[in-house]
């Protein structure tokens, strides 16, 4: 079971998208940056999906500072393919940022990829 935390300006919408997908192997909770960092570092959570208006800054600012750049990835305005997300996950990325107006495009790709890793 992968535990996903959502944060940022679209955290409720990302969580709703995940719940609507109804995929097995994932548990999604709404969070904030500071709590997410604590839970990720202590193993109480596995992934963080953060949103802001550009997808490149505030979505992950605190997490980059506390977790390190090596575990974080921002998509900015780009929409990743399933293969790109799988490569990022395989490379150890656990924290993802994207634009709030692209939740419907990016969140499903991320959540499906995470669910596939738990299968």
TrEMBL record:
A Pfam family annotated for this UniProt entry: DUF2620
Superkingdom field: Bacteria
Designated name of the protein: DUF2620 domain-containing protein
Lineage of the species this protein comes from: Bacteria, Bacillati, Actinomycetota, Actinomycetes, Kitasatosporales
